[in-house]
């Protein structure tokens, strides 16, 4: 299928593999993309897993309008400033000029908090925790499928609490749920930490993040949670009467995870032959391919295939490729490209031996497994693939994380292999900006487990006490 090897050119491979494996396609609208069924099914698996987590935490789903009055966005100064360059604005509706322009939501803080102010009166109405699975628009001039598109899908949760302590706990709990999602289901290792003042969400007190290192040495901000303090509740007058009858503003959080995560998934696990999808998120975890010969033996092969499918289907997502119009080799290539975690090959010889040939996509290895042992074998195999992919991602990140003490070395790494750099920083925005200008690297986060040490700022040499993580970002 003429796929550019990932090892040769990551970004070329990335675009090609998405198109050839039919995850997504370019759209006639510049900056936008079409998510095809094979790509959307990955998102559906993410939704299914994460939606259950959200609900366990007492968050409920709702839906708010896509159009936001411009005056709402302008109520929180930092927020308006942060989002104005990428806003899409509607000025006409039904053939008439609108009295007030409407922004197409870049995020929903403002419109949701307008409603919160109507719904929250007393401490009895708190906490309020609401999530939306929706689309948002942030104008982009260049498209990078999944990673950077004008419109993307995400979940955005917004919570309101009676105390700051409770809001911080919620932001930290949500961060933990993202870490678990990435580790256990995406099989992607990352670093959890806190954003610098200039990198935090526009309008937040504090932004927590999970930063992932991708092949090519650039970082992806994989999920963020924000402690909004009272920065929105004051302009939006979301206030409540506390237990003592005193009026106070609520303390808020917001947190989101988008379809960019699928871009991270593709880049992290794929190889020269195509996609490698972790079993938990794969549309099909197993595909059975009988070796058909257009003879009467096919009947027995097909009926055995259906029997295996019926057994495995009780637990797994299983496909069966009995199409006659494609050759056996063509089918194997397609499954390889699409990154199906496990395939079961079944020919005349297998029937004689009462066993199946089981192939695992991540390592490219095969094993003969007796029919009566197949279910047990698959159970262990899928877990092994899932764990193995995470371990590989962890090793890649560790191998490409550099602890650096000299700025020359910092510059050299960013010019060549890139990766995560751990370095002391005095926490002045001036040094942060200069480093960005000179190396394109930004502060990704202060790791949650960062120790207080004695050191010197990598840029200005001033006394510094903590090592930050730097990287170029997607
Ligand atoms: Zn400095």
Automatic annotation (TrEMBL):
Gene3D superfamilies assigned: Anticodon-binding domain, Bira Bifunctional Protein, Domain 2, C-terminal domain of ProRS
Reaction(s) catalysed (UniProt annotation): tRNA(Pro) + L-proline + ATP = L-prolyl-tRNA(Pro) + AMP + diphosphate
Pfam families: HGTP_anticodon, ProRS-C_1, tRNA-synt_2b
GO biological process: prolyl-tRNA aminoacylation
Broad class of enzyme this protein falls into: ligase
EC number: 6.1.1.15
SMART domains per record: ProRS-C_1
Primary localisation category: cytoplasm
GO cellular component, one term: cytoplasm
Residues of the Aminoacyl-transfer RNA synthetases class-II family profile domain: 36-278
Compartments, as annotated in UniProt: Cytoplasm
Any one Gene Ontology molecular-function term assigned to this protein's record: ATP binding
PROSITE patterns: AA_TRNA_LIGASE_II (PS50862)
Keywords: Aminoacyl-tRNA synthetase, ATP-binding, Cytoplasm, Ligase, Nucleotide-binding, Protein biosynthesis
Protein family membership: Belongs to the class-II aminoacyl-tRNA synthetase family. ProS type 3 subfamily.
Function: Catalyzes the attachment of proline to tRNA(Pro) in a two-step reaction: proline is first activated by ATP to form Pro-AMP and then transferred to the acceptor end of tRNA(Pro).
PANTHER family named among the record's database cross-references: BIFUNCTIONAL GLUTAMATE_PROLINE--TRNA LIGASE, PROLYL-TRNA SYNTHETASE
Domain notes: Consists of three domains: the N-terminal catalytic domain, the anticodon-binding domain and the C-terminal extension.
Assembly with partners or alone: Homodimer.
Protein name as catalogued: Proline--tRNA ligase
Organism: candidate division WWE3 bacterium RIFCSPLOWO2_01_FULL_39_13
Phylogenetic placement of the source organism: Bacteria, Katanobacteria
